[in-house]
Design brief:
Length: about 270
């Protein structure tokens, strides 16, 4: 957990009734992580029936580089009289065989509904974009070459509640995501159907998030973790916080995101 300077062992969560299904068909999303070092050992492979991960971890994980300056991303006032928007899970069948072939699903993946998120499509002729949702603002600087890519990319922002069955979880997100259709924001959350030909020569994503539990994530269209990027924290002179992801020369990007949990908004709802 980068923002807490902790090491973390993670195995993909699942409902009890799905345990036997996943035992037979493999597991997803297992990893050993250590603060600023990120993934020490991880696997996300739907073709394997589980993998044993072993890693040496530091006793005292390295902390996130700190800066003390004026933040480049300014927040906007939040209206407390307006209810928080919400998102939810949507099922998706994931296979190792092209979707044009009819085969039994290997895994059922749940992806997030992002219809209430805000977005700005990215143009390779531009080099920056700023987007706000509620009180959270995201700023992006980038150098992008599309190479006739049929898909597109968008800057996406969200500050609200994520609905997981009967549980509401507070969350904030700033992300650059690959979208199958710029007219359908939900396509940005779905698994990519083709390899992206777009190249980001550079990408710097900043988010003004005044929370302590913040997670960076960079994955390609194969849902594999992208290596070699920076995650920084700035303590602004006005007492606020800014979080930054920096990448150079990235191919086949699915998403680069800064995600925060807002536990004060969590609640259980009776169906």
């Amino acid at each position: 957990m980068a923002s807490l300077n902790l090491s973390k062992l993670t195995q993909n969560a699942m409902h009890d009734q799905l345990v036997d299904y996943h035992r037979k068909n493999g597991r997803l999303g297992t990893g050993i992580y250590s603060s600023q070092e990120g993934a020490i050992a991880e696997t996300f492979d739907i073709s394997k029936n589980g993998t044993l991960l072993i890693a040496d971890l530091p006793v005292h994980p390295s902390s996130i580089p700190e800066d003390h300056s004026t933040c480049s991303v300014q927040s906007v006032p939040n209206d407390p009289t307006q209810p928080m928007e919400s998102s939810s899970f949507i099922p998706y069948e994931m296979t190792t065989i092209p979707s044009s072939q009819t085969v039994p699903p290997i895994h059922k993946v749940f992806y997030q509904s992002i219809v209430n998120f805000t977005k700005i499509p990215l143009d390779e002729n531009d080099q920056s974009a700023t987007l706000c949702h509620e009180s959270t603002c995201c700023h992006l600087q980038y150098d992008m070459i599309k190479n006739n890519d049929s898909a597109t990319y968008a800057l996406i922002a969200y500050n609200g509640v994520h609905v997981i069955d009967y549980f509401h979880a507070g969350m904030i997100t700033c992300a650059v995501m690959r979208c199958e259709s710029i007219n359908d924001i939900q396509s940005c959350a779905q698994l990519a159907t083709t390899i992206s030909s777009t190249v980001f020569n550079s990408l710097t994503l900043k988010a003004n998030i005044n929370e302590n539990i913040v997670f960076p994530s960079v994955v390609n269209t194969d849902m594999q973790l992208v290596k070699d990027w920076e995650f920084l924290h700035t303590s602004c002179v006005d007492g606020k916080s800014e979080w930054t992801i920096k990448l150079n020369e990235v191919y086949n990007l699915k998403s680069a995101s800064i995600y925060a949990r807002v536990y004060s908004r969590d609640k259980k709802c009776i169906k």
